[in-house]
């Protein structure tokens, strides 16, 4: 297991991840496209493996999956850092671009491919699903 760290653009929010990701996915849902202007690389982690230093602002809305999703960002620089789904409160989504060493992870799957624009560059080595996949199995 590698400990990973990261933070926002201005450094006001820092985080440490002490467990391995459950899943690493490139999401093409419309919400992620709005947040990143492209597909967003999302790292799904158990909530109890993530420690956060600094203040976060929140925005909650219903996602295309039907779940209420709370997105968390730095109130100073606006960097989008995390997301939580009401359907899976024990998990957190971490935006991979905010890791100090984003090369320490590798995406495994493209999701919401039905929403991807025609110009989307998807790695042909990764499988894809048209909408929301089932959650990864729980770690034991």
Topology overview:
Elements: E1 4-7, E2 14-17, E3 23-27, H1 30-36, E4 40-46, E5 50-53, E6 57-62, E7 68-73, E8 80-85, E9 91-95, E10 109-111, E11 127-128
Parallel strand pairs: 3-10, 10-11
Antiparallel strand pairs: 1-2, 2-5, 3-4, 4-9, 6-7, 7-8, 8-9
Structural overview:
By secondary structure, the chain is mostly beta strands. The protein has one domain: Metal Binding Protein, Guanine Nucleotide Exchange Factor, Chain A (Beta Complex). Helix content is 5%, strand content 37%. The chain has one helix at 30-36, and strands at residues 4-7, 14-17, 23-27, 40-46, 50-53, 57-62, 68-73, 80-85, 91-95, 109-111, 127-128. The strands form two sheets. Strands 6-7-8-9-4-3-10-11 form an eight-stranded mixed β-sheet. Strand 1 (4-7) and strand 2 form a beta hairpin. The mean pLDDT is 89.
Count of individual domains: 1
- Give the radius of gyration: 14 Å
Question: How far apart are the first and last residues' alpha carbons, in Å?
Answer: 15 Å
How many beta-strand elements? 11
Strand order of the largest sheet: 6-7-8-9-4-3-10-11
The appropriate CATH architecture is Beta Complex
Q: What's the main sheet like?
A: 8 strands, mixed
* Poorly predicted tracts of residues: none
Provide a count of the helices. 1
What percent of the residues sit in helical stretches (DSSP H or I)? Answer: under 10%
Tell me the name of the CATH class. Mainly Beta
Mean pLDDT: 89
Secondary structural class: mainly beta
What sequence of helices (H) and strands (E) makes up the elements?
Answer: EEEHEEEEEEEE
What is the approximate shape? Answer: globular
CATH fold-level name: Metal Binding Protein, Guanine Nucleotide Exchange Factor, Chain A
In terms of quaternary structure, what is this?
Answer: single chain
What is the beta-strand fraction?
Answer: 35-45%
């Amino acid at each position: 297991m590698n400990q990973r760290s990261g933070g926002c653009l201005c450094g006001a929010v820092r985080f440490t991840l002490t467990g391995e990701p459950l899943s690493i996915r490139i999401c093409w849902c419309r919400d992620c496209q709005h947040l990143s202007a492209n597909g967003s690389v999302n790292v799904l982690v158990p909530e109890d493996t993530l420690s956060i230093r600094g203040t976060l602002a929140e925005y909650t809305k219903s996602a295309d999956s039907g779940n209420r999703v709370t997105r968390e960002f730095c109130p100073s620089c606006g960097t989008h850092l995390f997301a939580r789904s009401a359907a899976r409160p024990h998990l957190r989504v971490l935006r991979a671009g905010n890791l100090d060493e984003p090369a320490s992870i590798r995406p495994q799957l493209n999701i919401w491919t039905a929403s991807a624009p025609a110009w989307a560059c998807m790695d042909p080595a990764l499988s894809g699903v048209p909408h929301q996949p089932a959650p990864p199995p729980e770690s034991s």
